[in-house]
Fold this sequence. Notes:
By secondary structure, the protein is of the alpha+beta class. The protein has helices spanning 41-56, 76-79, 146-162, 168-171, 182-199, 293-310, 331-341; strands at 2-8, 13-22, 25-34, 65-73, 90-95, 104-112, 115-119, 122-127, 130-138, 172-179, 210-215, 225-233, 240-243, 262-266, 270-278, 318-325, 347-351, 361-370.
Amino acid sequence: MDYKSKYIEEIGAQIEFTSFTAGEVTEFHAILHVKPQGEVFSGQLARIQQAESKMMEMPELEGAQTVFKRYFLSDATNQVPLIEEKNPCTVSYIQQPPLDGSKIAIWIYLQRGTDISSLNDSTVVSHNGYQHIWTMGIMNTTVDTSYMQTWKSLFSYIDTLKLFNATLEANCIRTWFFVRDVDTQYNGLVKSRRECFAEQGLTQNTHYIASTGIGGTPADPKALVQMGCYAMTGFEPEQQRYLHALSHLNRTIEYGVTFERGTLMQYGDRNHVYISGTASINNKGEVVHVGDIVNQTYRMWENVEALLNEGDMTYDDVMQIVVYLRDCADYEIVQKMFEEKFPNIPYVITLAPVCRPTWLIEMECVAVKKADNAQFRNF
């Protein structure tokens, strides 16, 4: 794993990225930040786009193509119309304000050595017999409850998967659900997802999908729920394994939600781990350290580490981190803690309430490690 951080003084922007190479393919995760300079959004947008252009000119990224982007915004409804996205990739725009005082941050996933194309609203990565399908920004505003918006969004995505002869049960690896006013709207999402999953063959006796369900405001004022998904075709069932860390965490179905804590995907030359949104919880499903942001952060880290270890990885294999805070007043404490623990890993800290009011913080991450799995094809 290679880490790089570069501050571009003339435009006041920070570029942080990791790169990983095995076999023929290199992967990059980048997080871009801008330093607030007292200007309106268009000024920050211009500077972060300049930073992205400069990043793509770096020798390390020569030949890399963008797979997907996520914009973290302070006012999505007013800011999204101002963004002209030039890369033909799937994009997620969500109101989860960066807590460094800026109006915008971007997470970008790139690859080199694969064939990347677009189909409808998805980015399709093809290599070595696999198809990786990234689909962001899924919403449905023809109905007006979080239950029905989730239902229609899921079935719209199921229709997308049919284009690839894929199904939700067999092929979806990772999901994100962003919920407007999560304290009141999350239960509708949970009920709808559980019922849809059961209809599609996803039950406590089969498996669920790694996921983050978190507070986030879509740009469309009518949207209560926004989805993002990652699916694959061309892999064997044995390549996928679910991570539970039962010494630290319980099965999510025990408190009525339907997602996996983490997923390990194995290839000939590398392993991927996708860690779901993880908070300060114990193996009885109880919130730990209520009201204490410092100890909730420590317990969250411990839980994530247990999941990584189950996938034969450590924090040294993590490529990027997204952190969600309920209270913006906790930012200074949490920022210092992350800066000390993860001086190299790109991360962004956003304002995004977790699905239980007593959870003050949550994080998710992606990790990758070289492997020699002779029974599987390379990535």
